[in-house]
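User: I'm curious what two different proteins look like when written out as structure tokens. Can you demonstrate?

Assistant: Sure. I'll show them one after the other, since each token string lines up with its own sequence. Here's the first protein:
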Amino acid sequence: MKKNGFTLVELLGAIVIITIIALMGSVGIGAAKKGINEYLWKNNVELIESAAESFGNDKKSYIKNLDANINYCTIDNKKIAPCLKVSVQTLINRNYLNTKETIDEYNGKTNFKVIINKTKDKKNNESDNFTSGYYVNNAYVYIYIDKDIVYAKYGGL
């Protein structure tokens, strides 16, 4: 007698194998996406710090004349003075940092430019995205001078 199809056990076995392969693939894709987002975020931090260094070079004499007792920062457990603390939003507003990313509206402004940290989860409320670190406009960069060279270090929220 000739067999005309697959048995139920054969079909279930095929479905189980396909499901296992799909699960392994989705885990791999999730890990790759996370790695890509971390890589992109590191590049964004470098761009932010580079923009802050340019800003610092333009404000070099101002930074040198800051009161070191008041205007200092702690970087890698070292107190550095004088140090200027600027927000990422300041760098955007003064055209030191450009971004193509925008949100429709924020604080009454339309097409508001943002820098996104995709290693953070996006919230439903735009205000929460600013406080959670998804949008890093409110984050700070520390600008300081050592041996007449301007340095910048991203400090986060």
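Here's a second, unrelated protein for contrast:
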Amino acid sequence: MPSALLFDVGDVLMESNWVVLDELERRTGRRFAGRGARDPDGDPAWQRCLRGEIDIDEYWNQLALSGGYPDRITMWRAMSVELGAGVFAADALALVDQARAAGIKVGILSNDLYKASTREWVASRPEFAKFDVLVDCTDFGERKPAPGPYLKAAADFGLPPEEIVFLDDTPYCIEGARAVGMIGVPVDPLARSHAFDQARRLVGLTPPATADQLVAAAETAYRSQDLSQIMRLLHPDIVIYWNGEKVAEGLDAARQFHTQRLGFGSTTRHDYELHKTLRAAEGDTICVEWESSYRDDNDRLVRGRAGEFWTMRYGLLIEWRAYYHRIPDEGGSQ
């Protein structure tokens, strides 16, 4: 089980910048032309960003200019100075306090904390004193998603990356964490509770949800290569779609698909590795990502990854849609 939580700062530990702008306007008398995802139809620059005409940094630079700041960094610095504790998200600090009380290490990994808030401000805030680790890329020389900052945070924790849950609002920063072995949890700045609840489950602060238990059971069954155990996960009326093609309906057809198409029970998989990750769960639908690797009887390395959508009934899979991609073996037989 992971034993540390590592947080990005902006839009994760701190309130969404769009939310903070309201208070910044009230305190300074400035006015900003847009609220991004909070009011997409009323923000032309945000629409341009969504269309790919400008990147996210240019969006924030334009928003800063609309309020009289020369760039986004200056605006973010003003947010910290003007609002103080008001920039922090209460639900984020509650998670930090809960983790610390349970003996779980907590840390920060940021690209621009010192630049956007000043070292003096960071040193003055008691909120930052709660963290066991603080890595800011202003000092480090590399920025997320390069591997160095993540590995520096892991070294400062004294933990392997696999024992660290990393929370960030930027997809490529999540990818960087996963690339070094950390568990990446994407955060929606306007709905942080979903990510925070997942982080709590991952480090054992709350019991695993039903979806987590189902994914763990599926990973165990497939990793064991036990066809009987696999079949016990499936509803009698199971329907399976593979890369958009309907390939099985009912348990007999599902068993045949597993043996003839996937090779379970009919071929030997040497050095078999499998990891399934819950990505989302809503109602009776579960979204899962998985990666696998094994060596066949000719000692060829077979690797693949897939995204899956499960529809559940009575705790069993009744519809399974998988989209699989086999990764080419660059080295050939080894």
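A detail about the second structure: The longest strand covers residues 270-282.
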